[in-house]
Amino acid sequence: MAMTKELAALVDASPLAITDNELTFMLDHIGDPDGRLRDEIIYTLFGRGFFEGGFDADQRKEVAATILQRNDLWRDIDRPDTDAVFGRTFTALVGTLILNYDGEHAFLTTEQRNTFFQWAVTYLQREKDYRGYVSGHGWAHGVAHGADFLGAAVHHPQFRHTLIPDVQKSVVTVLNRMTTPFLDDEEQRLAAALVLGLNAHNISLREWTDWLAVEHTYLWNKYANDNLASYYRLSAWLRIMQNAYFLLHDDDPARQPCLAFINDYFIQMGFRG
User: Fold this and answer.
1) How many CB atoms lie within 10 A of CB 228?
2) Which among 27, 17, 12 is positioned nearest to 54, based on CA atoms?
3) Which residues on adjacent β-strands are paired with residue 139?
4) Which Pfam families does the entry link to (predicted)?
5) What is the pLDDT of residues 209-262, one digit of tens each?
């Protein structure tokens, strides 16, 4: 396809200038089942478009407006294991770029920004397709991409504090839906989202400490030796705590509850006295 070749030639172009026709194609193929086109070419160009000057101001606005108008984040979300997942998860990634850019150079309207926030804090509550790498199509990675979107929202300087319960609910919902272990560093991405909220002071130390205590107790109360899913959830929780601990700065008091719950896990599992 001629446009695919045209865009591929732009991936390493410097300086980068994306035409309106090229942008239209990119928007039309955000969730293309071809992993190379979707991930290596189109998503790369969206990133460079926002952060390396490839888009002009009107194009940035067009990306945001089109993403919201097409609503692909929610397309077939109640039908997991279909190719629609690529449109959802890569819409989440482009939403991440939009919020990250807007946090540094405000360009969204208040209504648009609030919609992106609402999408970011509810997407993981609704996404049920937990596939990571899909043979023949590349990355779906709904949990990881949703976590990136969540992190971009909770790190944004205009994030609304009233949405913090939905941030917490997103992580809890992901854990509660687990029936098999994660394989592709999903826990690392979830932890990174939470740490971004802490670093931006949009999640307070008290909220962090209280929520960790509630979730830790809940997961242990649900744990049973003959219930593998309950073990997978606890194990994922451990990795979230471990990743958060090392992502936080050495002197950040938010590390202490992470360490306490990591130690408690190993004690209760019988690995240490």
Assistant:
1) 12
2) 17
3) 133
4) DUF2785
5) 999 999 999 999 999 989 999 999 999 999 999 999 999 999 999 999 999 999
Domain assignments of the chain as residue spans, ordered by start: 2-164
d(Cα 125, Cα 111) in Å, to the nearest integer? 22
Q: Are 253 and 266 in contact (CB under 8 A)?
A: no
| Cβ-based neighbours of 179, under 8 Å, separated by 6 or more | 229, 232
* 133-166: pLDDT as tens digits: 999 999 999 999 999 999 999 999 999 999 999 9
What φ, ψ does residue 240 adopt, rounded to 5°?
-60, -45
For 88, counting Cβ atoms within 10 Å of its Cβ (0-12 exposed, 13-18 middle, 19+ buried), the class is: buried
Orientation of helix 164-177 relative to helix 186-199, angle to 10°: 170
Contacts of 241 (CB under 8 A, 6+ apart): 191, 212, 258, 261, 262, 265
Residue with tokens 């990634």: 93
- Distance (Å, rounded) from C-alpha 44 to C-alpha 53? 13
- Cα–Cα distance, 135 to 81 (Å, whole number): 12
The angle subtended at Cα 123 by Cα 118 and Cα 129, nearest 5°, is 175
* Gyration radius from the chain CA atoms: 19
Q: What is the pLDDT of residue 234?
A: 98
- CB–CB of 88/44 below 8 Å? no
Residue 137, CA atoms < 13 Å, CB-side half-sphere: 18
DSSP state of 259: H
